[in-house]
Fold:
Amino acid sequence: MADLESVAWPPAPIRTERLVLRTAEARDRAAFVELFASAEVGTYIGGPRSRDELERAVPEVPRRRRGHFVVDLDGAMIGMVTLDRRDAERPDHVVPAAGRASLGYMFLREAWGRGYAAEAVWRRSAGSPACSPTSR
Structure:
């Protein structure tokens, strides 16, 4: 399995019937703050972070990370899909050369229950070999 560093980045946007999976842009900053400050979203990721802390920490242009895609609906970020390599012995640690891939997602609360996660994850994992971690 190739490491994520060998995959061309950033890839072209990936389109589904309703969504676009793309890299982060400056216009996504407020949505990132909302996502990580949300008590409902935080329930599944170890708790929400302070909005004040996030306002100080999140850069004006959110960092682009290999394997991380913004999920865009009609020009606005509604969530994110991530593909990272995880250490089998320490699954909470991202290790680029590790042997286990971890596919995850987070969506703003108002996007829940509409099938966006399934659509984005299916397209990301099954439909886009160009940016798969096993591609060269």
